Amino acid sequence: MMLERLATDILILGSGGAGLFAALHAYQTNPELEIAVASKGLLGKCGCTRMVQGGYNVALNPGDSVERHFMDTIEGGKWLPNQNMAWTLVSKAVERIRELENEIGCFFDRNADGTLHGKAFAGQTFDRTVHKGDLTGIEIINRLMEQVWARPIQRLEEHRAVALIPAVDRQALAGALLIDMRKGTFCFVSAKAVLVATGGGPTMYRYHTPSGDKSMDGLAMALRLGLPLRDMEMVQFHPTGLLAGPDTRMTGTVLEEGLRGAGGHLLNGKGERFMAARDPRAERATRDFVSRCIYEEMRAGRTSPHGGVYIKMAHLGPEQVAKQFKGMVERCADCGFDLAAGLVEVVPTAHYLMGGMVCEVDTTTELAGLFVAGEDAGGAHGANRLGGNGVANSTVFGGIAGENMAHWIAHNPDRPAPDEAALQFELGRAQHPFTQARGDLNSLRERLLDIMWDDVGVIRNAAGLSRGRAAIADLEQELLATGLADGERAFNLTWHDWLNLRSLIEVSKAIVAAAQQRQNSRGAHFREDFPDAGDLASSNFTVVRQHGAGLTVTAEPVEFSIVRPGESLLKEAAQ
Ligand SMILES: Cc1cc2nc3c(=O)[nH]c(=O)nc-3n(C[C@H](O)[C@H](O)[C@H](O)COP(=O)(O)OP(=O)(O)OC[C@H]3O[C@@H](n4cnc5c(N)ncnc54)[C@H](O)[C@@H]3O)c2cc1C
Questions:
Q1: Contacts for 433-438 with beta carbons within 8 Å, 24 or more apart?
Q2: I need a labelling partner for 340 at 20 to 30 A (CA). Which of 190, 228, 289, 346 fits?
Q3: Nearest to 512, CA basis, from 476, 565, 548
Q4: Ligand 1, pocket residues at CB < 6 Å
Q5: Nearest residue (CA) to ligand 1, atom 4
Q6: pTM above 0.85, yes or no
Q7: Could you tell me which of 213, 211, 179, 214 has the C-alpha nearest to residue 38?
């Protein structure tokens, strides 16, 4: 198999908010550097930043403050976030939103007095979610894409990273092995600094929201290098994924939180409104709690025809609903539902992985030359991500990564030679399916979706997690024995499905291991056999590492570097 070799100064894997911001900031810091962005899809057209509907959290308006945003983030994250990362997120978001407006060229919705409009999002004490209607992500990513196009930044589109390749001495990273998906050939890109920004994305669940190009490749590659991942048990479910049957990809996609916020009701299959009895905030309770309540209705068999529950908006006035939620009404109509005047089937859907690579605030990792930002990085959100903190996280830390990679190179100007044995090994690994007899890949994928949904999903317990662990181990063996026809490799999407499934299985094992380790319930992680949150003051976060074929999980103490449980920056500010 032909192996092309390229060399650059900075290699960025992923072209979402994190990847593109990193490219722009690296260029701004040192325009002499060669920068390449490799992406599984087309630049600006792939990943989840483009899919952001709701908006971008930032404390801008009188009455709000970065301290308030910080406390919402820490309390929302159930005291597990890395506080220095959370502080950087909320404080830099102010700078970043100005940059998005004034340098990148984004237009956001405004109040009558010209200030940026902030809308309400669940779990926040201030309406601080800046947006452009309900298409905020398209505005952000399109403008970023134009800025990247306007600079001499190399674009490796439809180039999928399959492995991070260490230097000969294994003390640093030497680059990444990519598949040029258009040609079906391999390409090793040697770089002085590499950013992993492949966007996480829990697409191993039966119902999920992220874009189809995301299959946890970045985290799978990090695991194989022996790098630590934190908070892997923390998978966020959005309560209202559209449920339109198994034959449409629309199933699982998000019906936005604003529907519940505006007063939508959730009804079980018997037509009963079940949230009001469970929480004084009823449907406006937090995402994790509403998801659990829906799941309980489903387990009790009180379901809609496709096995979920209903959302009802008609009591708010069909005309008003049609006006206020035009996009959502159209999306539902495409699937045969009348959101404005009727009932729409919904189900909790896996939306975001709070877990990710362990890193410092400056986006460095344990391995010299390797950086991480965006949804691939763990720490900023802890046990829960506030809606609106996802894209803020990607753009804030993407920019920081770009600057730091440029500074790193100034002090580490050599390009490490790759470990050729590791490169050869990874070339073989990526072609493994061509060495096996053909099998039914889709049935394996379907099984993974069900295992993760049934046993590692919204509500967990010891028996289910053990069952899930064993089933995933079996599935992995079956995948390794399942081959593909070795025909045309250019745009061989079945090959990429196979590789996607392998990454998803590897990261699913890490999710299960962390979920088994955490014997309490925090935020998105709910164990019905350990329903209590545990002592906040002695909070730990999980760290998973791969050693050979096995995983180890440790519990690390949370450092309350800024505020301790029971304290508040707001109270201190008021004193
Ligand atoms: C439907 C939906 C709505 C959302 N709404 C909001 C919201 O309102 N507010 C908010 O804050 N957050 C929201 N989020 C979350 C937010 O989109 C993400 O947190 C954020 O955009 C992630 O940015 P990123 O740059 O890390 O990854 P992404 O933007 O997802 O980009 C990942 C990139 O990595 C590439 N990639 C993947 N694998 C590889 C590989 N192996 N090799 C090379 N490239 C690879 C992808 O093609 C893509 O270019 C939403 C998410 C979804 C799915």
A1: 433/482, 433/483, 433/484, 433/495, 433/498, 434/483, 434/484, 434/486, 435/483, 436/480, 436/481, 436/482, 436/483, 436/484, 437/481, 437/482, 437/483, 438/482, 438/483, 438/484, 438/485
A2: 289
A3: 476
A4: 13-19, 38-41, 46-49, 51-55, 160-161, 197-199, 209-210, 213-214, 217, 254, 352, 374-375, 387-392, 394
A5: 52
A6: yes
A7: 179
Tokens 């069909």 sit on residue = 318
- The whole-angstrom separation of Cα 104 and Cα 141 is 10
Give ∠ CA 222-227-228 in degrees, rounded to 5: 110
Please compute Rg for the chain using Cα positions.
Answer: 23
Residue pair 233/515 in contact (Cβ under 8 Å)? The answer is yes
Q: Where are the beta strands (DSSP E) in 102-153?
A: 118-119, 129-130
Terminal Cα-to-Cα distance of the chain (whole angstroms): 68
Q: Which amino acid is at 43?
A: L
Residue of 260, 351, 489, 525 with catalytic role: 260
439 CA distance to ligand 1 centroid (A)? 31
Helix (H, G, I), strand (E, B) or coil at 121: coil
Question: Residue 35: CB partners within 8 Å, gap ≥ 6?
Answer: 8, 9, 10, 12, 23, 26, 27, 153, 154
Q: What is the per-residue pLDDT across 49-65, written as a single tens digit (0 to 9) for each?
A: 999 988 999 999 989 99
Cα→Cα distances 438→110, 164, 181, 481, 502, Å: 56, 28, 21, 9, 16
Give the rounded distance of the alpha carbon of 210 from its chain centre. Answer: 8
Q: Is 96 tagged catalytic?
A: no
Contacts of 400 (CB under 8 A, 6+ apart): 25, 88, 92, 361, 362, 363, 373
- CB 225, CB 170: distance < 8 Å: no
Contact 66/86 with Cβ under 8 angstroms? no
Q: What is the pLDDT of residues 360-404, one digit of tens each?
A: 999 999 999 999 999 999 999 999 999 999 999 999 999 999 999
Q: What does the pLDDT look like over 179-196, one tens digit per residue? A: 999 999 999 999 999 999
**Residue whose tokens read 């996609």:** 253
Active site residue 160: no
- pLDDT at site 209: 96
With pLDDT > 70 as the criterion, what percentage of the chain qualifies? 99
